[in-house]
Amino acid sequence: MIQIVYGSGGGNTEFVCNLLAEKLITKGFNVSLLKAKVTSFDYLDVAELSIFASPTYGHGLMEKYMGKFLKSYGRSHYDMKELKFAVIGLGDKKYDEDYFIESANILEEFVKRNDGELVCESLRIGGCVYDSLESKIDEFVKNILKTLNE
Question: Is 2-148 CATH 3.30.70.260?
Answer without folding.
Answer: no
